[in-house]
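Expect sequence, tokenised fold; for instance:
***
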Amino acid sequence: MEAKIYAFYFDEEEFLMEIEADKKTVEKLLDEYRNTDPEGYNDWGWCEFLKNKGIKARLLAPDYYIYF
């Protein structure tokens, strides 16, 4: 399976992840992850959760911000 780029958002925050799974699987696993700790889930925990499920995933963050 080819990795896809997913944007996750909440309130005013957003982060990107590259995940080697289809959208339906990601949505299902995200629901499962949210239920593990409804108050304390976060982007790093989500990434580790996916890796523990055997799914290749990585957070994407820019090294530089340049005005366009």
Remarks:
- The chain has one domain: 4-60.
- Residues 23-36 form the longest helix (14 residues).
- The chain has two helices and three strands.
